[in-house]
């Protein structure tokens, strides 16, 4: 029997979540059934949508039940398998949750190719909530073209910084919006933005028109 340690939601946060809204508990996992795998959780992606799931309302992503593990996408490693699709040692992406071990049907997981990049990359540049979000917005929806001007809001954040780089690769002129001159310098020097605008400095519309 495998024991998992997990962070569960014990009460709905009021405002900013506090440590007392959660608890660390241990529980024994059930035996594997045919088609299931036992995973050791290696990496979690702590994303903004998790906060919306802590409230007592059915939002876009649903809600986390009380005494249930905090939801989080992540990377896991197959420890044991009763599936023909996944073998012991395989790295997978899926809804890991804030816990050390979890059991899922193999069909809910995506096997990761570690031949050229480490598994954790699939939470960042190749991740659904960062790199893929930026790519889909710019390339699939925005259909950015060379020589166009792309303005990226929250450009110093996880998705925004990826969007800046993707837009530059696509040949666009990129203007990043961020809060503070330090972040703006980062966008110019590290993210390749052609220019950056500090929204905290005021007069944002005039600066963008310039």
TrEMBL record:
Keywords: Oxidoreductase. SUPFAM superfamilies: GroES-like, NAD(P)-binding Rossmann-fold domains. One of its GO terms (molecular function) is oxidoreductase activity, acting on the CH-CH group of donors, NAD or NADP as acceptor. Residues 5-111 form the Oxidoreductase N-terminal domain. CDD domains: PGDH. Residues 158-209 form the Alcohol dehydrogenase-like C-terminal domain. InterPro entries: ADH-like_C, ADH_N_2, GroES-like_sf, MDR_fam, NAD(P)-bd_dom_sf. Gene3D superfamilies: Medium-chain alcohol dehydrogenases, catalytic domain, NAD(P)-binding Rossmann-like Domain. It holds the Pfam family ADH_N_2. This is Oxidoreductase N-terminal domain-containing protein.
């Amino acid at each position: 029997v495998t024991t998992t340690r997990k962070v569960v939601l014990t009460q709905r946060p009021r405002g900013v979540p506090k440590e007392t809204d959660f608890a660390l508990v241990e529980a024994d996992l059930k035996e594997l059934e045919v088609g299931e795998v036992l995973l050791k959780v290696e990496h979690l992606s702590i994303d903004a949508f998790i906060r919306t799931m802590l409230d007592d309302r059915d939002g876009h992503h649903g809600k986390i039940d009380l005494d249930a593990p905090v939801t989080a996408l992540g990377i896991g490693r197959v420890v044991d398998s009763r599936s023909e699709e996944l073998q012991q040692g395989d790295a997978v992406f899926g809804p890991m949750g804030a816990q050390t071990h979890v059991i899922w049907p193999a069909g809910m997981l995506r096997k990761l190719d570690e031949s050229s990049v480490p598994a954790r990359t699939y939470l960042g540049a190749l991740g659904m909530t960062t790199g893929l979000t930026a790519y889909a917005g710019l390339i699939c929806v925005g259909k950015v073209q060379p020589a166009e001007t792309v303005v990226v809001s929250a450009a110093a954040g996880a998705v925004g910084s990826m969007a800046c780089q993707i837009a530059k690769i696509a040949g666009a002129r990129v203007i990043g919006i961020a809060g503070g001159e330090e972040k703006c310098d980062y966008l110019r020097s590290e993210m390749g933005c052609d220019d950056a605008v500090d929204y905290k400095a005021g007069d944002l519309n005039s600066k963008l028109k310039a």
